Amino acid sequence: MDKTILVSGGAGFIGSHVTVELIEAGYGVVVADNMSNCDMTCFEGVKKITGRDDIPFVKMDFCDAAAVDRLFSDYRIDAVIHFAAYKAVGESVAQPVKYYKNNLSSFLNVLESASAHGGCNVLFSSSATVYGEPDTLPVTETSPRQPATSPYGNTKQICEDILRDTVKATAGSEGEIKGIALRYFNPIGAHPSGLIGELPRGVPNNLVPFITQTAIGKRECLSIFGNDYPTPDGTCQRDYIDIVDLAKAHVCAVSRMLDGDMEEDYEIFNIGTGRPVSVLELVNAFEKVNGLKLNYRFAPRREGDVTAIWADPAEANKKMGWKAERTVEETLAAAWAWEKHIAGQE
Ligand code: UFG
After folding, report:
1. Active-site option among 27, 99, 152, 229
2. Residue 75 annotated among the catalytic residues of the structure
C-alpha cells in the first residue's frame, strides 16, 4: 500500500505494539525514539514478531526541532502517530516544567514540520484522563472535559487543543493537517508472543505491572488503594483495554485518515471496552486465569484517583469499524507471560 507512518516514541510500550500492527497491516513504518523511558527490548521484539530486520529506527529527541525537520526531509511521511511524551502523573506534579516543556514542544515540533513539508495526517495519543471524575457513565466523546488534576493530564488537554486549532488553521492550505485524538482508557497486557510488553522503570505506578511484579516476587505485596469507594465492591472501576486491541485502533484510525473516510478534519474517539472492572475484580481475574494467589492488602485511597470511569466506545465501533475483542482474562494471561519472559523464567 506504499504509505509510510512515523511512530514517535515507537520503542515504548504502546508504540511497539502499534508498530507491529501497522507492519502487519502492510504499512511502511519509521520508528523514532529518544529512549528516555525504554531500552531496545521492545524494538528488538517488534523485529522478531514481524520477521523484519529492516525497520527504519531513528534515535532522536522530538524536542529538537531541527532533528524533527530532518526526519520529514529524509522520509515521505503520510501520517504521524505521536506517542513521544512523559507519562508519570506523580512526577508531573513534582516537575511540571519538565512535563510541559517536553510534551508540548515535541508535539509542536511535529506539527510545524508536518505542515511545512506539505501537510500530514496526525494521530495524537490522548487519554481518558481528560474526562476527570465524570458526572455520567459511560463517557462519550462529547462528555465534558474536566480541569486536569495534574500537569501530565493538562498536557493531554492542551495537545488536543493544539491539534484542533492547527487542523482548523491549516484547512485547505498546502500544509494541511488532519487530526485524530484517541482517548485511551487503561491499556494493559502484552503481545501474545510474549516478546513485547510494558517495562516500567523502578516501582510501577500502574496496577497491572504492580500485580505481575508482586506475583513474580519482585514486590512483596500489592496495595489496593481504597476499598470504601461508592462502587459495588468498594474499589475503583476502570475500563482496561488490551494493548493489542488498542494498537489495532491505531491502524483503523490511520486507514480512516489515509483513505479519506474522515467526517471532520479533527475527530476524537474513545478507545475502551465499555466494560467497568474494579481493582478487586481485576486481581481476582488475574489469580484465576493464572492459577495463583496474589499477596495484597487494602490501603488508603491514592490521591487524585477518580472513583469510576469507563468508555462508551460506540463511535469508534461504528465509524472506525474497531472493537475491543480480547477478554480481560486473555489480557491478564498475556501480561503474566510477559512478566515471566522478562524474568527469564520461560
Ligand atoms: N491501583 C492500586 N494499586 C496500585 C496501582 C493502582 O490499587 O499499586 C489502582 C488505582 O488506585 C486505580 C486503578 O488501580 O484505581 C488503576 O490505576 P492505574 O494507575 O493503573 O491507572 P489510572 O486509572 O490511575 O491511570 C490512568 C492512565 C494514566 C493516566 C491516569 C490519569 O493509565 O496514564 O489514568 O488519572 F494518567
Report:
1. 152
2. no
Q: Which residues have C-beta within 8 Å of that of residue 183, sequence separation ≥ 6?
A: 126, 127, 128, 130, 131, 141, 268, 269, 270, 271, 311
> Could you say which DSSP state residue 73 is in?
H
Q: Please, what sign has the CA dihedral across residues 86, 267, 198, 148? A: positive
Atom of ligand 1 nearest to the CA of 223: 3
Residue found under cell 501530565 = 152
- For residue 42, report the phi and psi dihedrals to the nearest 5 degrees: -70, -40
Task: Give the β-pairing of 237-238 and 277-278.
Answer: antiparallel
Q: Are strands 177-184 and 79-82 parallel, antiparallel or unpaired?
A: unpaired
Whose grid coordinates read 466506545? 313
Taking only the tens place, the pLDDT of each residue in 89-136 is 999 999 999 999 999 999 999 999 999 999 999 999 999 999 999 999
Measured in Å, residue 22 CA sits from the centre of ligand 1 at 28
* 3-class state of residue 171 by DSSP: coil
Of 66, 98, 52, 71, which Cα lies nearest the Cα of 4?
Answer: 71
Condensed to tens digits (0 to 9), the pLDDT of residues 290-310 reads: 999 999 999 999 999 999 999
Distance of CA 287 to the CA centre of its chain: 25
Q: Rounded to an integer, what distance in angstroms lies between the CA atom of residue 129 and that of residue 23?
A: 29
Most ligand 1 atoms within 8 A of CB, residue of 133, 139, 150, 206 to mutate: 206
Model's pTM, two decimal places?
0.97
Question: From CA 291, how far away is CA 111, in angstroms rounded?
Answer: 48
